[in-house]
Amino acid sequence: MTLRQAQGNRSDFGKVAVLMGGHSAEREVSLMSGGGVLKALQSRGVDAHAFDPAQRDLSELRADGFQRCFIALHGRFGEDGTVQGALELLGIPYTGSGVMASAISIDKVMTKRVWLAEGLPTPKYQLLRRGGYTREQVLQVPDELGLPVIVKPAREGSSIGVAKVQGYSEMTAAVEAASLLDADVLCEQFIAGDEVTCPVLGSGADAIALPVIRIVAPEGNYDYNNKYFTDDTKYLVPCGLPAGEEEAIQGLVLKAYRVLGCRGWGRLDVMIDAQTRKPYLLEINTSPGMTSHSLVPMSARAAGLSYEDLCLQLLASAALDQEKPRP
Question: Is-annotated flag, keyword Magnesium (predicted)?
């Protein structure tokens, strides 16, 4: 795969639905992503239309003659394999990963289990299930993982519900807050060092890693507000890492992407230990943001690919896990 591959005739795409909004906690961000994608596709002559699954039944996609879907949904009911499964049944090709890869990748614990099974580095963790832990077990987590501890819902994105716990007295409140958003709460070892992210485009052996972005957030707090609604966070691309580190991280994220069976595109978040310079995989996003603050378009621009061309390339990659047999 190349960044400047031919996109084909715009008419080949047919009528395109940009799926945005949806039911997840990331609805607001999804509407921003979808709006940007819709404008970009229309500016390049694509017959693209907004489609909000929270307001319309997915069965209307077939009834209205849509031939392809660009998934700009984030979080549950959009990034977790559910919409992908529905589109498989409808026989409408869609952007991004398929059913299994999407379902695994949105679950941070399942993702870690796959990576660890493949020998890929990821921070140590403990899983707490809602209703299945005692206060004493919660307070034992820092004994195993050290302090600070990162506490987060296992299946949310955009840093929703994430807390950096500095002391034992904060553990219970952080776990309870995360458990309101998800039955599974991930407690993760904190890696102090550089925070970076690296997008991937393509599938299998043809997948390529885009330039690494180094993230410098106010006081190291890359939360929901600093991701989307302030200009205080700095994004460095070129990333300015020591020689050889960027290439090593690109190689690592490609392995991580491929072992999960992802396709189309994704973005992987990595922490680099300040003392050892060892990179640790945090998580993968299989339907990354496409807002004005989003990182995949930023990295793509650094590689010479405009926002509009990125959207076209992603749309051209739309596919099904299983092609429907001809009658």
Answer: no
Distance CA 282, CA 122 (A): 6
Q: Which of 156, 289, 294, 317 is catalytic?
A: 289
Collapsing DSSP to helix, strand or coil, 68 comes out as: strand
Give phi and psi for 139, each to the nearest 5.
-75, -15
* Each residue's pLDDT tens digit, 114-131: 999 999 999 999 999 998
Q: How far apart are CA 154 and CA 282, in angstroms?
A: 12
Q: Does the pLDDT value for residue 161 go beyond 90?
A: no
Q: Which of 184, 283, 308, 309 is catalytic?
A: 283
CA distances, 163 to each of 150, 175, 185, 213, 222 (Å)? 6, 9, 11, 23, 11
Can you list the domains of the chain with their CATH numbers? 10-95 (3.40.50.20), 104-121+192-311 (3.30.470.20), 125-189 (3.30.1490.20)
Q: What is the pLDDT of residues 182-239, one digit of tens each?
A: 999 999 999 999 999 999 999 999 999 999 999 998 765 655 555 555 677 899 999 9
Please give the pLDDT value at position 3: 64
DSSP string computed for 71-122 = E---STTTSSSHHHHHHHHHT--BSS--HHHHHHHH-HHHHHHHHHHTT---
